[in-house]
Amino acid sequence: MNKWAEGTVVSQKHWSGQLYSLQVEAELAPFEAGQFTKLALAVDGEMVARPYSFVNAPNEKPYDFYYLVLPGNPLTPQLCKLGAGDAIYLTPHASGFLTLSEVPPGEHLWLLATGTALGPFLSILKTEAPWQRFERVVLVHAVRHAAELCYQEQIQALAAKHAGRFTFVPVVSREKTDFALGGRIPKAIADGQLEARAGIGLTASSSRLMVCGNPEMVADTVHALQERGLKRHRRRDPGQIAVENYW
């Protein structure tokens, strides 16, 4: 099996600051919403790769990847220079366990993301699975500045399609807004603001949570949830919280 599948860039979108998304045509094996592949380019004669989740649903083309240009990183400054028709390489088979098939049954699904970790949750939300399995779905996206609340058109489309069952909660930590919660997700859990905004409670009996973001956010969020009586889910020891570090 070839390690890399060659793809072609369809388009590139610059969202804000160092936030971009890349749309790619390629022939890849089927994947499950929430999974990731690796994007790669030849840099100084060597293939440099980094994992990125699919933002698109499994039945959507082209593939869509949301990313942040990282200073000193060998790959991302090259990714943002790509344009339509340029070649890019991808691993042909997806990986990862941040999928609904790993989440036990429940009434309410909470998706908690920081930054570009929004991507896998959009992929999940564009499938039928969450709407078939859960009565209510809450998407929480935490960013530093309001301009980083990307993919709003897709989020608004989900809200319109699933009116009464879907709630979007923006969280902005470094500037005041008249529409978002302030601070960080763990604090909003601890002081009850998140539940108040969503209009439903966080309980071990009804809530199932998927948490994706930088390692500090994931650890602090899991701790805040554990203080509320919820626990990490493992196949041998079922719980309410599934996590993936994403940075």
Précis, in short:
The protein has helices spanning 76-79, 118-125, 129-133, 152-161, 185-190, 193-198, 215-226; strands at residues 5-16, 19-25, 36-43, 46-53, 63-68, 87-90, 108-114, 136-143, 166-172, 181-182, 207-213, 241-245.
Provide structural commentary.
- It is a single chain.
- The chain has 247 residues and is of the alpha/beta class.
- The protein starts with a strand and ends with a strand.
- It is 21% helix and 33% strand.
- The protein contains 7 helices and 12 strands.
- Helix 4 (152-161) links the parallel strand 8 (136-143) and strand 9.
- The protein is globular and about 50 Å long.
- It has helices at residues 76-79, 118-125, 129-133, 152-161, 185-190, 193-198, 215-226; strands at residues 5-16, 19-25, 36-43, 46-53, 63-68, 87-90, 108-114, 136-143, 166-172, 181-182, 207-213, 241-245.
- The longest helix is centred in the C-terminal third of the chain and has 12 residues, at 215-226.
- The model has no long low-confidence stretch (mean pLDDT 95).
- The protein has 2 domains: 5-90, Elongation Factor Tu (Ef-tu), domain 3 (Beta Barrel); 100-245, Nucleotide-binding domain of ferredoxin-NADP reductase (FNR) module (Rossmann fold, 3-Layer(aba) Sandwich), CATH 3.40.50.
- The strands form 2 sheets. The chain has a 6-stranded antiparallel beta sheet. It has a 6-stranded parallel beta sheet with strand order 10-9-8-7-11-12, with helices on both faces.
